[in-house]
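JOB MANIFEST
job_type = single_chain_structure
chain_count = 1
residues = 136
[input]
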Amino acid sequence: MFDCLEIRVLPPGPRFAAQVRFWVNGEDVVEETVGEGGRGPYATDVLPADCPSPLRATSEARRLELGGPDCTGGCCGFLTVVMQRSGEIAQWSDWEVPWEGQSAMPYRPPELHFDASQYDAEVARAEADQWWQGHP
């Protein structure tokens, strides 16, 4: 069974520009991993209007930042994942999670496997929906 991705853009707030959140199987990956105060990457970075999104899965494995703690990640690190496409599977693996000096390791999401056609369609939908472009 494949995992299911939904990409949501949150409106800009008083501290941050519009940001992207990733819902996998009905759960907000950033909130589940980083905590309630976590933030996603800026929409302008992962859903640029003038070029393809870095969210597109290709055969070349690459690490992508998916979020960070409220402190912006400079002190605790960022939530990152290695993204790669293998045939009809888009895979997220090798997670790195922010460290906040906790005695136990923070929660690391499992390796995720998406049906590549569903994944591609969701990224294309998010790329096309640029409602947030007019907001600061």
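[summary]
The mean pLDDT is 86.
Strands lie at 5-10, 19-24, 27-28, 62-67, 79-86, 89-96, 112-115.
exit_status = 0
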